[in-house]
Amino acid sequence: MGVNNLKLGIPKGSLEKATIELFGKSGWKISVNGRSYFPDIDDPEISCSMCRAQEMSRYVENGTLDCGLTGKDWIMENDSQVTVAADLVYSKVSKNPARWVLAVPKESPYQRPEDLAGRKIATELVNFTKRYFAERHIPVKVEFSWGATEAKVGAGLADAIVEVTETGSTIRAHGLKIIHELLQTNTQFIVNNDVWEKDSWKREKIENLILLLKGALRADRMVGLKMNVPEANMEKMVSILPCLQAPTIASLYHTDWYSVEVIVEQAKVRNLIPQLIKFGATGIIEYPLYKVI
């Protein structure tokens, strides 16, 4: 291990696969060897360690790790003093932040947090939930849940739960209803405060990492479009083309046609292509992107 070495934390568990895939798209190959907690990475200036997202901010705060990826929720749960260098929203289910919500039985009379005064709440996010209700002067008993939190209410072990969700489908499937949102959370790239403020080499390395991670995330939502457009329809065509700045346009050899290339959001393509065809576009090609910086 060289003098210049960045100690990077990779979250083990639900974020593990998505994180490794994101680094792969960004240019760093991370290989997990069986049950090892020290994955290989194809960068001699980085050493990786794996730990649960729930614990990541503690290890970054105390300097065991220089930086790592974890949820905003677990930083708040641990009340960790770390530098948040970047927000990184990525998920198998959605591209939106997850939510910690208060849920109760579908047929219960509870409609708002105040209705749970004197009641028992089960959650994995114990410290944050205690602070949340205490700040609103609502007396509740908060108990730690090791898992299967949605089942706690049905089993009579709690009156309500605070649980993380992206779509709410699992909560509804357990006969519960959401009555309040406590927190929106997403993945954050966190850095030890001393590293961020005092180590210029590590800070630059981290900033370069973040630049490419964000570029890969941005590219995941976008595609490139290429097409041929007749000169007579060029102005109308350009007026409907979304793009990062302006379309790239080049004349086709010895014709009154042009080649047009743009970068657009993938979600817009299905509505955009029929419009392009109406304006005479031909040879339309859609292609994936790896990074958009």
Overview of the molecule:
By secondary structure, the chain is α/β, with parallel strands linked by helices. The protein folds into 3 domains: 6-90 and 187-219, Periplasmic binding protein-like II (D-Maltodextrin-Binding Protein, domain 2, 3-Layer(aba) Sandwich), CATH 3.40.190.10; 98-185, 3-Layer(aba) Sandwich (D-Maltodextrin-Binding Protein, domain 2); 222-288, Alpha-Beta Plaits (2-Layer Sandwich), CATH 3.30.70.120. It has 10 helices and 16 strands. Strand 8 (120-123), helix 4 (126-135) and strand 9 form a beta-alpha-beta unit. Helix 1 (16-26) crosses helix 8, helix 2 (53-61) packs across helix 3 (72-78) and helix 3 (72-78) packs across helix 4. The radius of gyration is 24 Å and the shape is globular.
List the topology elements.
Layout: E1 6-12, H1 16-26, E2 30-31, E3 40-41, E4 46-52, H2 53-61, E5 67-71, H3 72-78, E6 83-88, E7 98-105, E8 120-123, H4 126-135, E9 141-144, H5 150-154, E10 160-165, H6 169-173, E11 176-185, E12 187-191, H7 193-198, H8 200-220, E13 222-230, H9 234-240, E14 248-251, E15 257-265, H10 266-278, E16 282-288
Parallel strand pairs: 1-4, 1-5, 8-9, 8-10
Antiparallel strand pairs: 2-3, 5-12, 6-12, 7-10, 7-11, 13-15, 13-16, 14-15
Helix pairs in contact: 1-8, 2-3, 3-4
